[in-house]
From TrEMBL:
Subcellular location: Cell membrane
CDD domains associated with the record: ABC_Iron-Siderophores_B12_Hemin (cd03214)
Domain ABC transporter residues, every copy: 2-238
Molecular-function GO terms, alphabetical: ATP binding; ATP hydrolysis activity
GO biological process: iron ion transport
Gene3D superfamilies with a match to the protein in the record: P-loop containing nucleotide triphosphate hydrolases (3.40.50.300)
Name of the protein described by the UniProt record: ABC transporter ATP-binding protein
One GO cellular component term noted in the UniProt record for this chain: plasma membrane
Topology class, membrane: Peripheral membrane protein
Length: 253
């Protein structure tokens, strides 16, 4: 369980999150939605412990995230930001293997190798495993980074726009892999994902958090938040959700 208590955050001395209070469930997939500049990335960076709040705090299972040592935090949460440094010489397998570092600290064992192999298979990277990351397409690189976050095997996974470079097939496969991670009966994880694709949020999220101007607009189970009136007000444009052949789609109203 993540508890966000009266959280205020500044970036470059400008307030970007205002007095946010919210509890996120420990399991399931939570979609973070809202217009450009709403503060979604700032919230994710704060949840990851990478931006210190001006006021308020974030607790993970009762512990203040910002008081944890980085090594301890790396066993509790995995974070994938929008802009990742490119480590060009690494192969895909080596990069995914970096996700295991907090577990083995430089001495990988069979469990680490198995976790990497599982992540490579889950994200369709088997055939690319020995390729340098620098030789990959943007979408292949994005899947490599998501696989690395998966291999980290943390109870909480934070992903900022993980679908942005993916074609429809891989966007769907990655979302289904994230759902499987969130509902893995052996080790369910809390997966929090910033999504611009509202159709994906409507189809796959268990919970939805809607933000605008650095404030919370709505939060709750998907069906409570993904409603025509909430979405239209959130994005300042007419939107309607409709069911087409069993899937939710978002249309202009
Ligand atoms: N590195 C930064 N330094 C200073 N201010 C920033 C920085 N990044 C974002 N901001 C500001 O913080 C506010 C929230 O931005 P943020 O990136 O968190 O929003 P977002 O909802 O993730 O937007 P988007 O959907 O466009 O990615 C904006 O006003 C933005 O200008």
């Amino acid at each position: 369980m993540i508890e966000i208590e009266t959280l205020s955050v500044e970036r470059d001395h400008a307030p970007v999150l205002h007095d946010l209070s919210l509890a996120l469930p420990a399991g399931g997939l939570t979609a973070l939605i809202g217009p450009n500049g709403a503060g979604k990335s700032s919230l994710l960076l704060t949840l990851a412990g990478l931006i210190a709040p001006r006021a308020g705090r974030v607790r993970l299972d009762g512990e203040d995230i910002h008081a944890m040592r980085p090594q301890a935090r790396a066993l509790r949460l995995a974070f994938l930001g929008q802009e990742q440094a490119q480590v060009s010489r690494l192969t895909v397998r080596e990069m995914v293997g970096f996700g295991r570092w907090p577990h083995h600290r430089g001495r990988p064992g069979p469990a680490d190798r198995a976790a990497v192999a599982g992540a490579l298979a889950l994200f369709g990277l088997g055939e690319l495993a020995e390729r340098p990351v620098s030789s990959l397409s943007g979408g292949q690189r994005q899947r490599t980074q998501i696989a690395m976050a998966h291999a980290q095997a943390t109870p909480l996974v934070l992903l900022d726009e993980p679908l942005s470079a993916l074609d429809p097939r891989y966007a769907r496969e990655v979302m289904e892999a994230l759902v499987a991670m969130a509902h893995d009966p052996a080790a369910p994880r809390g997966v929090v994902v910033v999504l611009h694709d509202l159709g994906m949020a409507a189809r796959y999220a268990d919970h939805v958090v809607a933000m605008k101007h650095g404030r919370l607009v709505a939060a709750g189970p998907r069906r409570e938040v993904m409603r025509d009136a909430v979405l239209s007000a959130l994005f300042d444009t007419g939107l309607k959700l409709r069911e087409v052949e069993g899937a939710q789609v978002v249309l202009p109203a």
